[in-house]
Amino acid sequence: MAQLRVFIVEDSPLIRENLISALEELVPLSVVGWADNESGALDWLAEPANACDLAILDLFLRSGSGTGILRALRERGGGPECVVLTNYASPDVARRGCSTSRATSTPWSSIARAGLPPARADACAAAGPTGSARSSARSR
């Protein structure tokens, strides 16, 4: 089975590393890069040498937003499938995120509880979308 190539946009180092660890342990995928803000994500995704099948986006970032990334990808045309994860998954937030593109919106706590042991899931869910404000995008 071919591995799914995934790009992650999350500004909290703790959540990002826990998400990467859980995904790589539970799903046949490879995280090919990450960014902690909108501009870094868009730069990485625009680079022809970078390819991914799925982008997992945090909705609220310290710099920019997952919605901004979705909007830019829609305007460019093409791009990876997207899943939006957020701690703020009210019906209104989910509608706004999903109306921006073909993305799926899922609460962080649901993802955390689905793939992490209870103690790590609670820590991940409690941490929320907080983290570093530095600008970066990384390939793994």
In short:
With 140 residues, the chain is of the alpha/beta class. The protein is 44% helix and 22% strand. The protein has one domain (4-139): Rossmann fold.
Return residue spans where pLDDT drops below 50 for at least 5 consecutive residues.
Answer: 100-136
Rounded Rg: 14 Å
CATH superfamily: Response regulator
Percent of residues in beta strands:
15-25%
CATH architecture: 3-Layer(aba) Sandwich
Ends apart, CA distance between termini: 21 Å
| H/E element sequence | EHEHEHEHEHHE
Largest sheet: 6 strands, mixed
How many strands appear in the DSSP assignment? Answer: 6
In the CATH hierarchy, the third-tier topology is known as Rossmann fold
**Contiguous helical run count:** 6
Overall tally of structural domains: 1
CATH class group = Alpha Beta
- Average pLDDT works out at 74
Sheet/helix structural class: alpha/beta
Percent range for helical residues?
A: 40-55%
Question: What is the approximate shape?
Answer: globular
List the strand order in the largest sheet.
5-4-3-1-2-6
Please name the defining characteristics of this protein.
140 residues; 22% strand; Rossmann fold; single chain; 6 helices
Describe the structure in your own words.
The protein has helices spanning about 15-25, 40-45, 65-75, 90-100, 110-115, 120-125; strands spanning about 5-10, 30-35, 55-60, 80-85, 105, 135-140. By secondary structure, the protein is an alpha/beta fold. It has one domain (about 5-140): Rossmann fold (3-Layer(aba) Sandwich). Mean pLDDT is about 75; it is low at about 100-135.
